[in-house]
Amino acid sequence: MKCIVGLGNPGKKYNKTRHNVGFMVIDELAGRHNWTLKKDKFKGKSTVETHDGEKVILLKPQTYMNLSGESVRPLMDFYQLAPEDVLVIYDDLDLPAGKIRLRQKGGHGGHNGIRSLIDHLGTKEFNRLRIGIGRPDTAMPVVDYVLHPFSREQQEDIQSGVKKSADACEWWMQRPFAEVMNEFNN
């Protein structure tokens, strides 16, 4: 069984913001396969499905970004998932809008959602898929930037990045993560 977690903030206020690009990928995957996420006991919206014989969980924590670990850890415990069975999708300021990068471990890099996961999981070794959102080109504080919608100029790149990220998730449902990194980090 594998678990794909998209990080973001719940509520319409945050729906199309940069910080919610992880939710956007989960929505893309669910839409492709006609899957429906429902509120669950893990402080999130999730579904358990089968894709080509492999069980997969999609999860959108509803705890707000900074508390994401409070949703992911109980789900992992319930389904007895190891960190290598989890793929976390989140926004990255240091990548250009829409560019994706996969890795198997690392620090939080200042991302509070990842910080929460590291704290709750007790490890930095879990699969990650980062989607670039770019940096503000004005004096806008980062906290305001990530909580604002994408600019018109970023829309096409973000849509491409979301689709490519969903493709990478589908690859991971059938292949080792190292193969997925080799294919999608180029």
From TrEMBL:
Subunit structure, as described in the record: Monomer.
Stated name of the protein: Peptidyl-tRNA hydrolase
Enzyme class: hydrolase
Any one GO MF annotation of this record: peptidyl-tRNA hydrolase activity
Active-site residues from the entry: 19 (proton acceptor)
Keyword Cell inner membrane tagged: no
Pfam family name, one: Pept_tRNA_hydro
EC number of this enzyme: 3.1.1.29
Assigned protein family: Belongs to the PTH family.
Reactions accelerated catalytically: an N-acyl-L-alpha-aminoacyl-tRNA + H2O = an N-acyl-L-amino acid + a tRNA + H(+)
CDD domains membership: PTH (cd00462)
Site for Discriminates between blocked and unblocked aminoacyl-tRNA, residues: 9
Stabilizes the basic form of H active site to accept a proton, annotated site positions: 91
Keyword Cytoplasm found: yes
Domain of life: Bacteria
This protein's UniProt keywords: Cytoplasm, Hydrolase, RNA-binding, tRNA-binding
